[in-house]
Amino acid sequence: MKNFASLAVVAAFAAGSALAANVDSSTLKGFLDKETAGIAGRVETSVGEIDPRLRLAPCARVEPFLPPGARLWGRGMVGVRCAEGAKWTTYVPFQVRVFGPALVAARAVPAGKVLDDEDLRVAELELTRESPGLIADPLDTRNRVLVRALAPGQPLRATDLRGRPAVAAGEPVQIMHVGAGFTITMEGRALAGATDGEPVRVQTDSGRVLTGTARPGRVVEVRY
Q1: Which of 23, 129, 142, 148 has the most neighbouring CB atoms within 10 Å?
Q2: Cα angle value 80/83/87 (rounded, 5°)
Q3: Does the pTM exceed 0.90?
Q4: Shared-domain flag, residues 91 and 106
Q5: Mean pLDDT of each 10-residue bin along the chain, 224 residues long
Q6: Class of residue 98 by CB neighbours under 10 A (exposed 0-12, middle 13-18, buried 19+)
Q7: Distance between CA atoms of 55 and 84, rounded to whole angstroms?
């Protein structure tokens, strides 16, 4: 009796596997390839297998779909429902890998350095394994300062950069008073560092403290 029960279980699993195999993985992969066609970069898709323990009724036509909230990025599940011949829905694991260009350190780069072309190189990275914020365009690094050290091959992110200081704390600056129809320039001293466009406090030679906008060339613009 025990052997008969064991054989029945094996037969049931075999039947389930055969039915599950009716869902063609190439159909699911073709669906994913079509859905990911608009993603920028080189895309690779792969589809897993339906749980062989499932007992799916024969189906004349299956229909892939994406569950609500599904994201075609990294690992996920694609839905499959029988559209003709039976009524069932199941889910199959998938993986979408996206590769694209990104800037990485060409050598060890210390924090505080103004980046130049020799510091960086373009490499193809698997974007689906990286956190957001990668930089691909070298123009986005012009006159930017690295806020943390990078090891060779380490990717560069927007959060790793800040603007190059237009003025530094304690250095002499030109204070430019700008109003309707007039511009007056005087000497002063920056009380803090700031990048282009940032507010900064300055002190005039007479001791008056003003707040203006940092501009390149050690200029602080005070508008009225």
Answers
A1: 23
A2: 80
A3: no
A4: no
A5: 37 38 78 95 93 85 93 95 91 96 97 92 96 94 91 96 88 94 93 90 94 93 93
A6: buried
A7: 17
